[in-house]
Amino acid sequence: MNAMLNHTHDAAARSWVASANQSAGDFPIQNLPFCVFRVRGSGQPFRGGVAIGDQIVDLALLSQAACLQGPAAQAAQAGAQPSLNALMAMGPAAWSALRHGLFALLNADASASLQTTVQACLVPQSSVEYTVPAQIGDYTDFYTSVHHATNIGKQFRPDNPLLPNYKWVPIGYHGRASSIVVSGHAFARPKGQLKAPDAEVPVLAPSKRLDIELELGIFIGQGNAQGEPIDIGDAENHVFGICLLNDWSARDIQAWEYQPLGPFLSKSFASTISPWIVTLEALAPYRVPFNRPQGDPQPLPYLDSELNRSGGSLDIQLQVGLLTDKMRVAGQADAQICRTSYRHAYWTVAQMVTHHTINGCNLQAGDLFGSGTLSGPTLDQAGALIELTQGGRQPVALPNGEQRTYLEDGDSVVIRGWCEKPGAVRIGFGECWGTVLPARA
Fold this sequence. Notes:
Blueprint: E1 34-39, E2 47-52, E3 55-58, H1 59-65, H2 70-79, H3 85-90, H4 92-106, H5 112-119, E4 122-124, E5 128-130, E6 139-142, H6 146-156, E7 172-174, E8 180-182, E9 186-188, E10 191-194, E11 203-206, E12 210-211, E13 214-220, E14 239-246, E15 249-250, H7 251-257, E16 271-273, E17 287-288, H8 306-311, E18 313-314, E19 317-323, H9 325-329, E20 335-341, H10 349-357, E21 368-370, H11 385-388, E22 396-397, E23 403-404, E24 412-419, E25 427-437
Parallel strand pairs: 6-21, 8-16, 9-25
Antiparallel strand pairs: 1-2, 1-5, 2-3, 3-4, 6-7, 10-11, 12-15, 13-14, 13-21, 14-16, 17-18, 19-20, 19-24, 22-23, 24-25
Helix pairs in contact: 1-2, 2-4
């Protein structure tokens, strides 16, 4: 179902909300992503909302207005809660019913009376604050970019950069859900044990090699019972949607702690997600075939299907911008340091879901997957500073003359994502901002 095109993807469709019809906007009527918000400074309860242009459809107000019926109305009521977990748990039929109902209400062809009713349910995005859109019970970070894995591997194992399991297993580890924050939050530079190569003992100190990780977040919708794996043919029916994710990393802490069990304090201090979750249904026009390079092993049968081969990958454009304190004071915009696409990932969303559950692991509504750093095939498409600077040896030059090997205090990082192609309307993911503060004393 999630792979199919329908009338909500019609490139000719327009909304009576004028800002939704701007050609370069993120939130046309063909998108309709979800968030959880409240009016800034109001003290009101958070509730679910849907973006249209520069406005948000308040699902709580919309439910009170009673202009949706049946499954769409039930889904709107679930989405009006302080988190989207209840809506996520309802499954793809309910998500689609709500999407189609909203499309009808916001379409330029809607009656004048409906427009008036829904207009009263709109809140300007400029007046709101967001929170993490779901109660995230568990967070799993994958490693789906073969280019990132190869670039990192070359720094440590030049003659054998990829470990032998990489092309067979969707590698992942379980991260920390409690430190996931929504876009706009600042965080203190983390502390941890650092050990220089020539030092006899480690020291406790603030990280000197603070990095970014350009990722996508995948929110789970319906879960599965413990002991019951999710077949790859059904996997996407368990995915509510996709957001932007910056999984900040302290590379010097990581280098000392990660053997033998992997990342710990180097990752658990902060992960930033965008407030908007774009549904798989909205992304249907941007599906592309999933192909393995010639000579690489094909996925094992449980990770393979005709549908996954024909359209399991998504062409989501991704960009990383960096804004320093000096740039901010000078009134300058952030500078692009990376541009890539999710279509380069070695494993698909469906494969991640299926592999995660093949051992009987039970997923729950609101669980979050990280895609892992999404680097492309060339170095300018690398999604982390450790790659862009080749381990800190070649600093990134910024337009104002500054350089960066790793992040400095006061630096802000913004991730942007969007999809566009001829014959389809551009849809976007908004922005995912985070700022590094000095380490606490």
